[in-house]
Amino acid sequence: MDFEQFFKDQLRRLREENRYRVFADLERQAGRFPYALWREEAHGPAREVVVWCSNDYLGMGQHPAVLDAMRGSLMLNGAGAGGTRNISGTSHHHVLLEHALAEWHGKEAALLFTSGYISNETSLATLAKHLTNAVIYSDADNHASIISGIRNSRCEYRIFRHNDVEHLRELLAATEAERPKIVVFESVYSMDGDIAPLSAICDVAEEFGALTYLDEVHAVGLYGEHGAGIAERDGVADRITVIEGTMGKAFGLLGGYIAASAGLIDFVRSFAPGFIFTTSLPPMIAAGGLASLRVLRGAADLRARHQDRVRYLRRLLAGVGLPVMPNASHIVPVWVGDSSVCKAISDRLLMDYGIYVQPINYPTVPRGSERLRFTPSPFHSAEMIEKLVSALYECWHDRSFALDPTGTSSLPPSRNVLARSSAYEAVARN
Ligand SMILES: *Cc1c(COP(=O)(O)O)cnc(C)c1O
């Protein structure tokens, strides 16, 4: 077989569909968030741009307390963990951080993983595989890491329509009462920014004795009095069996975790290959995570300012008639609906305005629902927001994009008519 030809053909297909991924070469500037240096070519000149699509939602990746903790641990403990958790790789910082995470979520215990992706994949696969004859109920919009975990478990699963509690109930009711059931969902959905009805989902899950697994990756640090997520905000944390989070987003670092009962955590710790057979996070990451958590706990002001920036951006976008997708979170998606136009607008914003926002295309979102996803932080000034909106407005009405030549922007068709299963398809093919 001609392997090189095969790779080339596959990549050509991606390019033809306008979904070949081009990474922006960025140098983030600690102390200058959300500015970064961007290079078009590796050895070319650098240019300062404003980053509008970072998941470091609160700029914690540059917080002095986090940097101090990491610097301190780096000098004291060195660079890497030196082993898996079982074989010399458990540092004191890991232990302290797991205690703090558990307490934050009101759970008995917590367990760290090298990423949020791994925490979902290996925890779900391990739980579902070992619970004999289990059935998983998974929201249609769940993240690729969740879908991959479900598939790896080789367990029977059913997909319920996005945030549709009645559909979930129907599916649960249609299953034999004695089979173990796991309901898997997210709180804030990353690409639409909508929020799940946690309490109603808990009601149904409890009615059928199902275990609940909640991905709070886009909510930890951002919602609730102490920033512990939507489950804290809605007062339902004690009704969720497993809360999964990441340190890669609002924490500004890297690493994932689950928080649950002591028994469940001990079980995953003892049986999950993605936890057992890999080198643990460097101690300095755990130290940074602990420092970040301490700040986030008391960061009500930062959270309020974050939501204030979000409201301002939304108001200006809607004010000039741009199709901002409505939701109740901090994620501001602007609907484009065409992959080449989405990429062209993103390129133009970067080249002509020094504004960086990555186009979001299939399979991250369904085909025909391509969008620009903005994530304003407390550090995006009013002036930056105003500049973004006027730049986007100019691009939008530029006829060369053949977008919206009449000047009337429209919101997407009802999301229920879209094919929602893009991520499931994508994972299934891999
Ligand atoms: C980003 C993301 C993850 C994975 O977290 P990482 O720490 O980045 O690996 C899991 N779930 C959702 C919903 C995500 O958006």
UniProtKB/TrEMBL annotation:
It comes from the Bacteria. Its cofactor is pyridoxal 5'-phosphate. Keywords: Acyltransferase, Heme biosynthesis, Pyridoxal phosphate, Transferase. GO terms for molecular function: 5-aminolevulinate synthase activity. SUPFAM superfamilies: PLP-dependent transferases. Its EC number is 2.3.1.37. InterPro entries: 4pyrrol_synth_NH2levulA_synth, Aminotrans_II_pyridoxalP_BS, Aminotransferase_I/II_large, AON_synthase_class-II, PyrdxlP-dep_Trfase, PyrdxlP-dep_Trfase_major, PyrdxlP-dep_Trfase_small. Residues 48-392 form the Aminotransferase class I/classII large domain. It is an enzyme of class 2 (transferase). Pathway: Porphyrin-containing compound metabolism; protoporphyrin-IX biosynthesis; 5-aminolevulinate from glycine: step 1/1. The keyword Cell membrane does not apply. It catalyses: succinyl-CoA + glycine + H(+) = 5-aminolevulinate + CO2 + CoA. Pfam families: Aminotran_1_2. Homodimer. NCBIfam families: 5aminolev_synth. Belongs to the class-II pyridoxal-phosphate-dependent aminotransferase family. This is 5-aminolevulinate synthase. The lineage of its organism: Bacteria, Pseudomonadati, Pseudomonadota, Alphaproteobacteria, Rhodospirillales.
